[in-house]
Amino acid sequence: MMVEMGSELAEICGIHAGDGYMRLRGKGKGEVDISGHLEEKEYYDNHVVLLFNKVFGLEIKGRTFSRGSYGFISYYKQLRETLMKLGFPSGEKSDIVSVPKLILESNNKEFFSRFLRGWFDTDGNLYFSRRISGHYGDFKKKYHYYPVIQIATVSEKLSRDVSLMLNELSIKHFIFSYQPKDIRDKRKYVITINGVDRLEKWMRFIGIKNPVKYTRYLIWKKFGFCPPHTTLEQRKDILNGKLDIYSVIKGL
């Protein structure tokens, strides 16, 4: 089976790289399991499920799993075979996953952007920091105003592949690695994108579809800062004027 890469499939690859797991059970049987945090139900129902259904002609519906996550399981053979043809392994993939060659070698910036969006939406984090010390004004010391995009992986290959794509999109970034204190944990590779200009470039070229992350961006755009440790529902209420943002800060 030949796989024809497209922008929607590129995003699916990013989603699978972040939240996916594929199991093969012999004689052509197996499943693809895609799931995330329970708070991401809206992202799954309104974007991920619709995207998979459109690309593969499926009728998947999201559900809550007993393990405390939300997503779906598909037994559709063509989905498994497509992911396998693209280089995704069966079983544990976290330390060997990489960007499919069809994306990486395409030199297609739209493919790069869509993969990065899928991966960030599932595995990334957007937060805002403040300045605790130094010669900064009261606002910067009190409020979390400085944007940081951060994505971590235990796959060195994936971190290198992503760095190449970010360079092609002219998005400046940094990569550092560290060994967790627990020696049983795998070494982590962290990609960091700091600052207002880089966040805005990310939004122009890549974007965010996951409301858990996107509402943080919207609050920052509206107020100039975004409090940490808020829930998705709190952020929605703040944006809708139902909750005073400053009352949330006092409660932290």
Keywords:
252 residues; Endonuclease I-creI; 4-stranded antiparallel sheet; 8 strands; 2 domains; alpha+beta
Describe, in plain words, how this protein is organized in 3D.
This protein is of the alpha+beta class and 252 residues long. The protein folds into two domains: 88 residues, Homing endonucleases (Endonuclease I-creI, Roll); 131 residues, Homing endonucleases (Endonuclease I-creI, Roll), CATH 3.10.28.10. Helices cover 45% and strands 20% of the residues. The longest helix has 16 residues. The model has no long low-confidence stretch (mean pLDDT 94).
Largest sheet, order of strands side by side? 1-2-4-3
| Sequence stretches where pLDDT stays below 50 over 5 or more residues | none
Q: Which band does the percent of strand residues land in?
A: 15-25%
Q: Mean of the pLDDT scores? A: 94
Number of domains: 2
CATH homologous superfamily title of the largest domain:
Homing endonucleases
The total count of strands amounts to: 8
Gross morphology is globular
How is the biggest beta sheet arranged? 4 strands, antiparallel
The total count of helices amounts to 11
Q: What structural class do helix, strand and pairing data support? A: alpha+beta
**Rg on CA atoms, Å:** 19 Å
Q: What is the helical fraction, as a range of percent?
A: 40-55%
> What name does the CATH topology of the largest domain carry?
Endonuclease I-creI
H and E string: HEEHEEHHHEHEHEEHHHH
Give the class-level CATH name of the largest domain: Alpha Beta
Q: What gap, in angstroms, lies between the N and C termini?
A: 54 Å
